[in-house]
Records
---
Amino acid sequence: MAELDSIEIKEFDTIIVGSGLAGLTAAYHASKNGSVAIITKSQLDISNSYYAQGGIAVVTAPEDSFESHIQDTLTAGRELCDLDAVRILVSEGQECVQELIRLGMQFDKENGEFVLGLEGGHSHRRILHAGGDATGKGLTLFMLNRVQEQSNISAFEYTTVVDLLVENQKCSGVQAFDFVSGNNIIFRSKSTIIATGGLSRIYDRSTNPHTATGDGIALAFHAGAKLSDIEFIQFHPSALYLPGEDAFLISEAVRGEGAWLLNQEEERFMQHIHPLAELAPRDVVAFAIHNQLQIHHSDFVYLSLKHLNPETIKKRFSTIYHTLLKYNIDFTCDLLPISPAAHYTMGGILTDLHGETNIKGLFACGEVASTGVMGANRLASNSLLECLVFGKRAAEKANTEEMVASGVPQINRIHVDQANETFFLETKNQIAALMSKKAGIVRSGEKLSEALEELHAIKKLLPEEINEYNLLKIKHITDICTLICESALIRKESRGGHIREDYQLEDPNLCAHLIQQIDHQFKFQEIRKS
């Protein structure tokens, strides 16, 4: 254990862990009432939000309505959404977007009117975009600029949180490790907001940046926070498939503009599966593609835009178009090989409607949180909206907290030993292959049990007390994967982003949130329907 007088201690009113749209939004609003620290393990502009090609779903058209957006969200969520949270998302979301526009955020317009896109699961055109297919980048950089204008916000890049400081169910701050200096730092605060994003990089094909390995969820779980519904992983149907290359995301909006999915025989197949065809909810499309891969013994299907106006496509999807040209693919005339990739975590750290966890002073927002909005399957383009709404709500509630009077507990110093880096990379890849094979789009009790055995075997390779960063990362990843497999094993049904080949139907008796907490038995919690 390290003595406190040998470790640097910094004090802020609010600590934000993570620098995606949720974290930046929370930081901006928290700064109105005190000092803020943003801690991020890479750079401020590296996040899932930054790479989001899709837009932000918000009611703006006269023919659209809050009720329609709410119903689309509930339908996509397979009855697992909490109605009060969805109402807040949709109604306050409109206010948040209007506030951004007043601050100067530019969304795409034609002839003075917003260009509204259509994506899977939406009954109206309601998707705002910025820069065509670069909405995440536009929004994130816009909020980053607003954050950097605030003199009372301090950013700590290349710094990772390694522990939450919790005593008597109250969070007093975090322990962090500075990669540049090699120093351990204690950040004390009135409130801590986790906004670390998702965990899809635990799979071998993912649209997420390499930083998205579920750190925040693991930290919160070990601190005693409740988790909810982490068995539900959304696999984006359309990610570029090229052997040896990362799974580059092909936005849902491409299908929204009329692209077709074709199998190896170059035949459309979605119109036989769902009334919305290629615009069915993501879980339906991903599962249909998975089945085509099995039928044709292939690694990919095709996305075809040949029948669409090429100039419109080049303008609307400029980023995608120019990225694909680097691979000698012109997707206005070439068939595009795609297959599903792990994309989004529907569950996460359980919060109330203000982003607060069951631990006093500890909040979560964005993809890392389970607010009750996403259900069993996220409706396309609701994620950026959730960042804005619940990032603001978490900050406003966090601003009411008071500083903990008690001292900071002693800590275990973390260090980096380069000798463990090879073990980390090899083990991480081993786990990613394991999760993709046995806890991916389609699961079974047998495969999940096998995965758990292999994960337990990996855990046995780790020392009981870990103070080296590479080993700590492996512990976090194995813990997260274990929790996913355990919850997937418990949920004996198929619903949304959780598909069991041995339980192929939804079970009305399991229409409830699955709650996990350290040193507690799992339990089911009722959905809030009012």
---
Amino acid sequence: MDKRWNILTADELKTQALQTELKIHPVLCKILVQRGIGTFEQSRNFFRPSLNDLHSPWLMKDMEKAVDRVVRAVQENEKILVFGDYDVDGTTAVASMFLFLQKIHHNLDFYIPHRYREGYGISKAGIDFAKENGFTLIIALDCGIKSADLIAYAKELDIDFIICDHHLPDKILPPALAILNPKQPDCNYPYKELCGCGVGFKLMCALEEKLNLPIGSAMQDLDLLATAIAADIVPVSGENRILAFHGLKKANENPNKGIKALTKLSGLVKELHITNLVFMIAPRVNAAGRMDDASKAVRMFIAKTEDEAMNYAEMLHSDNSDRKEADSSITEEALALIQENKEWINRKSTVVFKSHWHKGVVGIVASRLIEHYYRPTIVLTRSGDYAAGSARSVPGFNLYEAIHACREHLLGYGGHFAAAGMTLELGQVDAFREKFEEVVANSIDPKMLIPEIVIDAEIKLDDIRQPFFNILCQMEPFGPENLRPVFITRNVTDTGWSKIVKEDHLKFSVKQNNVTISGIGFNMADKYPLLQEKKPVDIVYKIDENEWQDKKSLQIRVIDVRPASQRL
């Protein structure tokens, strides 16, 4: 699949001014300017994130109401139920809040709705559980902002709700006692991109102040918050960067027992980075809700002993193995289905359906299909008497609007710009597929159907030195709005040592002038003939460190390569 190369630019005067102040490689200054860092002070805050720079929790709308209600519940020994979603953000938020409240209150339990029996967010079953068991206060984390009817139902049962959510509110807000959500139009909280666990953290910070708890009481599970930030793909900027930085520090120095157990099962022996949280920890936590019951993820995080945490971690590890098997076999079936239906291959969208596919992995399968056919994709399966599924988009295309335009064929739908879910009658699948294709074909910019590689800067192979790499590492943690830098080097040639490894991958060995570097290009074996021509090529890559037999060396992870004559 050909890709578009988009090389970013930066204000030259700002870059020069920053280089004068920092005295580091001008390319690094260019990248900082691209990311909104233009002064010495901004650079210091970026490279040395400080917990002292977090905003006061009291700036958040309804914080006083929320704190006063929790304090009253503690003073009067009311039963408090900590309620959260079944994904990583929800389960880490529930575990963090539960561990924090446990220090000051014992009349406490938690509740995670079952993905298939109860669905996403606040559930009637959860509220009924609270009523039957005498809970008078529910703290909802990573959900609740769209549950107006259910929270009204809880109010009728004399159950108060505090909502800690980060999803976009509707015009009609639920009748909760307090709503903590910086995305509310009239909330003055300066940072709007907290995840659900982050909003819960701000409530804990305010409670720490109000109750004069030991300083740092709210910070004791920052590694769980860093996991939520990584998994929920929120911007790693502002407060999220500070929290992720210090959360990673905690994960490496004194991890939560659940994180420690999952790290061990993942086979990781080196230092934890954000990528480990995203690709090793998060999938195992998410697998619990996808394949079974996510409450065991919370039990793992709140475990009192390492043995107990490992017991639950092994269950999650097993769920993840089942999830991988299901997503692999369903992806194969879905690709075969597209190949069988020749008229689908050149479409602008993909909609596939099989009644036996596992509902918990259809979203992952949609993402896998986009790797093969780069276009808005929906994967449907049977759910009871209906078809239900998940949709994923390509960058820039508003998936939610496209699905909204097909609403005549749907029973229900929800989501946002990049991902959505829907339910429909089984007999409507074909009609929905045709309507969705019509909507996408008429509205998508053809450029969006070609994957884009965003390149930060052009460098020479000679620039790839240890001091340069060390500063790159200090730009971590990486994530949205602060992605790992991508470089381009032009006019390099094969040294003669490049080769295909493990059938699919390409081991690179290239030179420019008298400088040689090696690297790997995953799933790039098809580019080998291009290197064999011994003609100059342009390569796009990230810089990595390779460790072999206790020796470290810099290498490149190649993303794309094309003939040097083929200019942008």
---
Amino acid sequence: MLIPITVLLFILPALALVILRILRPNFRFFWLIALGGGLLGWISLWIWLARLPLVFQLPRWQPADLFFHAPTFTADGLSWPFAISLGTLALSIVLTAVVRQDLTDPMPWAGALLLTGVGVLAVTANNPLTLVLVWAALDLSELLTQLRSVETPEASERIVVAFASRVTGIGLVLWANVLSVLGGSRLDFASMPADAGLFLLVAAGLRLGVLPLHLPYASESKLRRGVGTAMRLTSAASSLVLLTRIPPGSVASPLTPYLFVLVAAAAVYSSWTWLRAPDELAGRPFWVLSLAALALASALSASPAGVTGWGVALVLAGGALFLNSAQQIWLNRAVLIGALALSTLPFTLTASAWDGGAPVFFLAWPLLIAAQTMTIAGFARHALRPGSRELLDTRPSFVRIFHSLGIGLLLLTILILGFVGWDGALQVGNWIPALLVFLLTVGLVWAAPRLPFLNPIRAHWIRPSGASWVDFLYRGLWSLYQGVGRMSDVITNALEGEGGVMWSLLFLALFISYMSQVGR
């Protein structure tokens, strides 16, 4: 029962904040309720560690011939790190809110806690039915939140298209289930048919924006550090966890080398854009894309622990960077622990990333090493940049304490997970590429201020500043989508207008004529 208790510890305070905001808008202790809920949920996640593995199963749905599996949630050595990272992120969001926002508005904290509760359900989902249901809940909540945060019709269209890409990922999981049933088996993470692995990998890649390369959600809106960070990172973690459930042998295919190259190319492009982004929030979509691409590469090399390492680093290191909204020199330097988490050096969070059961395609190695190097160098640049952030030292003492504590919890969790708690702890890994990446990163960080082409620019997907082949590709696809929409409007107006009855009679006559010819 620990899993539902933890979920309720996150969700119930969120609901209480919403109800109090409606009934008692002048209530003075919103932040304390959010802090209490986040702290209790976070502590309960650490209690899981003493009881792993945990299983919680709901009653089986009827009819049994249609629903083969009951919704089931499992916490083990691969899902628990995702859960603890999401819980730590939620608590950090509440703690660091003292430096970012008015403490009389509880809605951002309620949104972060609610997303965390649903996210914990997603990362512990034990079968495709359960995961698809939680994905749908996350996608609908993100759709509604995004539509409320934009003002132009064009932005609304992009949000709907992004939602459609996520629904397509859900469709691929369902299609893998159909193929399994037709083959005489039932799709389950514990006993998965060999031909279903690639469908699940592509489904995760589509939801993450890696296969094919695209932004899986609209460009940054008004949602920025708090609930915006929770939404982005929780959604990514809920998709990455699927890769840890794919049996290692099921991704072996003649298509695997091509997938390696596509994933590595996406990693290079995303990490390059992340490196040159003007600030960490502008580059946040590409942070998610670059880490997701590296996780997909680990999945292709049959390393579930590597996927977990990249996914947890995405949440914890990214959370520390994006929530650090106040300037303080020692805190900025401490955030570099996140760069250590990305290094794949022995006994770090990602040590097992390149130590899988299948070899990495040799043509992908240079691209993956370059992508990892640029991702770490970009992280170091954004962590140390002076920028225009407010000085933390000018704020009251309680603000300094809670903000530092929130960032410190994320960084401390990164260090702890390198040694205990899950299947990828205390790993030496493949230290040769890790050492090469370390040396290249040091060189790139040194060269970045001295080479003009490495200077930050605006990420062109966020605000176009120049044309490239990716721009032309996605502009063409967007134009095709709009053309199909206009054609659909023309057909709809023709059929629903005054001549609709005549068109219907004409189609009916043609259909009868065709059937009479076939019947002869």
